[in-house]
Automatic annotation (TrEMBL):
Stored SMART domains: LMWPc
EC number: 3.1.3.48
Domain Phosphotyrosine protein phosphatase I: 2-147
Alphabetized UniProt keyword annotations: Hydrolase, Protein phosphatase
Family matches, as Gene3D superfamilies: 3.40.50.2300
Keyword hit for Hydrolase: yes
CDD domains in the cross-refs: LMWPTP
Record InterPro entries: LMW_PTPase, Ptyr_pPase, Ptyr_pPase_sf, Tyr_phospatase_low_mol_wt
Name of the protein in question: protein-tyrosine-phosphatase
Reactions this protein catalyses: O-phospho-L-tyrosyl-[protein] + H2O = L-tyrosyl-[protein] + phosphate
Amino acid sequence: MIKILFVCHGNICRSPMAEFVFRDLVQKRGMGNQLHIASAATSTEELGNPVHRGTVNKLKEYGISTAGKYAVQLKKKDYREYDYLIGMDDWNIRNMLRILGGDPEHKVYKLLDFSDNPRDIADPWYTGNFDRTYDDIMEGCEGFLKYLMERGMVW
């Protein structure tokens, strides 16, 4: 089983959106039992809080629920437990590497690095644009799934 951890600053907007979008993509393709998908924060400021209403409302448009998800923090031990640790922007990556103590096994990626147009995913906490965040996350998740499929990691 491949274990994937999506990471953003607070684990209430982008990383849970990526977690639930990716889970929906793989379940619709019958691959859900091949992957363990979760999300976490690099900061402590939102720990225990539910998913932001903007993310909840955007995913609800696509029939995707975030029920039961509460913000958790990335821990150093997550490096051993996950095969892929995927951040949303360069700032996330820097903080992830600090928390994890580096990336000797090359498990840390930025989500849109799996797309044809690598870039950061803007934080809708600041922009208020959950539509754009959703589009970027969908682009990254589709690219990441294609990456896994091309390497025979999921089928």
